[in-house]
Design brief:
Blueprint (H helix, E strand, L loop, with lengths): L1 H9 L13 H20 L9 H25 L6 H36 L2 H48 L4 H8 L4 H41 L2 H20 L7 H17 L1 H7 L2 H54 L3 H4 L3 H34 L1 H20 L17 H20 L11 H4 L7 E3 L3 E9 L5 E10 L5 E4 L6 H8 L9 E4 L5 E4 L10 H6 L4 H6 L4 H11 L17 H4 L2 H15 L3 E5 L7 H14 L2 E6 L10 E6 L2 E6 H4 L1
Parallel strand pairs: 1-5, 4-8, 4-9, 6-7, 7-8
Antiparallel strand pairs: 2-3, 2-5, 9-10
Amino acid sequence: TVSVLYWGLCHNPKMTSVSMAKMPSIRMLFIVTTLCMLMRLVLGNRKSRGVSVKTIQERRKNNLHFLRKFVSLLSICVPSARSKETGYMVALTVLLLLRTGLSIIHVKLGAMTATNFVSRRWTGLNRSITQFALLSIPATFVNAALKYVQDMLSMTMRKNLSQYINKRYLNGTSFLRAAHNSTDRPDETITKGVEQYSEQVANIYCHLVKPFIDVVIYTLSLASIIGWQGPAIIWAYFGMRQQLSNLLVPKTETPQSAYEKRHRAAHRDVIKDSDEIAFNGGASRDRIMIQNLLDAATTDSTSVRARHALVTAYDTLLLKYGASVAGYAVLLSPYLLGLQRVKFKTSNVMMRDYIICLKSLTELNRGISEIRDGFSLMTGIEDVTINVAGLIDTVEECRIAYPPTLKDKPRDVHNAPEQADEWIASWRAKCREEDQEEGKRSYHGRRSPPSNRSSPNTSPTHAANNIQFRKVAVTTPEGLVLLKDLSFTVEEGENLLITGRKGSGKTAIFRMLGGLWKLHSGSITKPRPSDMQYLSEMTHLVDGTLRDQVIYPHTEEEAKALGVSDGNLAKLLCLIDHSQTILGTWSLKETKDWRECLSMQQRQCVGIARMFYHLPRYALFDECTSHLSAEVEAYVYKTCKALGITVITAARSLCLTEQHTNVLSITSAGYEYEPVENVL
């Protein structure tokens, strides 16, 4: 409105004597209004349709939290106004001004070249081409200098931030405390995270300053040729386009990509955890989960495609054809209005002005888009900003809370309450009572019947209370024989340690025991599949609550039918995770992407708690405690013994011999089966 008013005052017949120079206040008002409209276009419509007040408040709170962290890190990267970093930022601004100025000169020379060519003025054509070629030399050096100064700004900011963190991180035992208290790897945050933050900050600065400079300079260039009504028209078009975008383009994010991502991840997990799923009978549970994800993605695809079609139509109409119509209106506006500045222009001058204005409109539109993209880059830096700032906060808390010397050991399972042993005994007794009442399952058992978890080609096998291999040839599905005439026996209460190099056949023995590979020769005596449980190094996780991870492959209804409460599950988790890094962060009812949330140590804690819940007679440990400390490993075996679980462990070394009765050593020459006393 102010723009139109200003243009009307300038071209009112009764005010022809009023010049532009005599109305500086109105000109300043127009410039301020233009900048306000620019910020309006960049920030967009602040009203969110269909979004609850609580969601808006949470977004505002998260944005304020991010801005505070961003500013705090930026103050470390740029310590003062007289610092080297400030000089690099000033140099970047000057170089960006030079590049935009050189671009305008290039445009004018290009327009003069076209005019001279059409008019057949060969002398002027040669002169304009020569000037264009000579001007390319400083333009090349300016572009190279821009890249160099941006890299130097990023490097110096990284150096300042890294020095600040290292000074506090490597002070006393702060690094040890931060390593235990931080959910992410501190080394990755200090190196890769700081580097990403510095590079993105320098990149964002260039992507914001350059388009702002382009918008201002090309607006002035456009106004100097065709008058201020030209910028008024194009800015009115930008405002109309933004309002129509707020009305037509959907603002809500579609969950289809999330569904598809989870669907693909679920299939990858099935392949990766195939041994654990097949051995423990979780195929039906994973099939239901994957089918639900596929149905959700398929159901949403129709609306997604419709929204994409609307957005495509909007882009074609307003961004392509609408921008062209607005550009022609700007170019023709002084001629249609009969302004004095264009009445006596020749054809050559009109062609030159047309080319310059067309280039100015193109760069103006590109500048608006780059400003919006520059602000959108802030969302891409949010994660790394929170990670780096979070590490600094953790280090500061550890530095203040703990003295520079280590006076106490990290809390571990040895500090568990004495009531833990009593509860373990009561849990075992409770499970046995339920088994005796049902008369159908050994301990909790499995949902899947043995037929779903055994291959029809694994006979001859026999159900018994112990595990015995008699002259078994461990053969892969491809026919490769790993071990010949394998014979050993595992009685209840006698743990077995299987050692050997990688690929020697340790996991293959578990697959033969679970009926996953065909038995070609010999015989296997083993309990029912429901009396055995396989634990892998990477515990298999599914979509659902934390409770679903512990009771997998059971459902919540099946766990309740067995009389298991959330209190029981919490105690099972605390048996292995006594410091409560899991329950101290999430509740059993909470739903997360557990594959991303849980660390390797926490995943293995969940897998062991899952074993305590199912309470099998035999547990097959395939390096499932590799990320736990030696003290925690010893407590796991102690708890298994108290619960009556016999453990068969596959490991690469003899570090766990004290927890076992017999040792099966696999070598290149064959195998040796002997009591652990002979090994020690």
